[in-house]
Amino acid sequence: MRLSPRRWYLLRNENAAPLAYNASSLSWNKMEEQMQFATVTYPSKDGATFDFDYYMKTHIPMVCGLLGTSIEVVKGISPTPDAAPAFVCVARIRITSAEEFLLAMVKHGTQIMQDIPNYTNITPVVQIDEVLTPS
């Protein structure tokens, strides 16, 4: 699998529900009550390694299967030729709530975390995000 750094990758399942833009009313309609994500970032650092092939073919499908959700993956690119991107990779895991995500991580976190050394030497940073939409 050849990855283009300028593309977004989205692994979806039937539970994923996006926002829809209603052009006639110029508003965003939520397809479910509240959209949240667990955002996993891999900050750039000297000597960082990241195997995108393994990440996209093995790790992401495993996490999607364990958590039963969709994941959006973005590969960082540098704004200038002589600078590193702020993040090598950012993954957004679609969640229904922070509590549900934490319960899933209690159940599957060990398996997920043990796989990290197979694709990177970067310690991931996790943040829970709520999507805001124009009112």
Q: Can you describe what's shown?
A:
With 135 residues, this protein is of the alpha+beta class. It contains two helices and seven strands. A five-stranded antiparallel sheet has the order 1-5-6-4-7. The chain is globular.
Sequence-ordered SSE layout with sheet pairings:
Blueprint: E1 8-11, E2 20-22, E3 27-29, E4 36-43, H1 52-67, E5 71-75, E6 87-95, H2 98-115, E7 125-130
Antiparallel strand pairs: 1-5, 2-3, 4-6, 4-7, 5-6
Helix pairs in contact: 1-2
Q: Which labels suit this protein?
A:
2 helices; 25% helix; Alpha-Beta Plaits; five-stranded antiparallel sheet; disordered N terminus; alpha+beta; two-stranded antiparallel sheet; 135 residues
Task: Name the helix and strand elements from N-terminus to C-terminus, one letter apiece.
Answer: EEEEHEEHE
Distance between the termini: 40 Å
Shape: globular
What is the CATH architecture term? 2-Layer Sandwich
Order of the strands making up the biggest sheet: 1-5-6-4-7
Q: Can you summarize the main beta sheet? A: 5 strands, antiparallel
Q: In which range does the helix fraction lie? A: 25-40%
In terms of quaternary structure, the protein is: single chain
CATH class wording: Alpha Beta
- Radius of gyration, in Å, reads 16 Å
**Tally of discrete structural domains:** 1
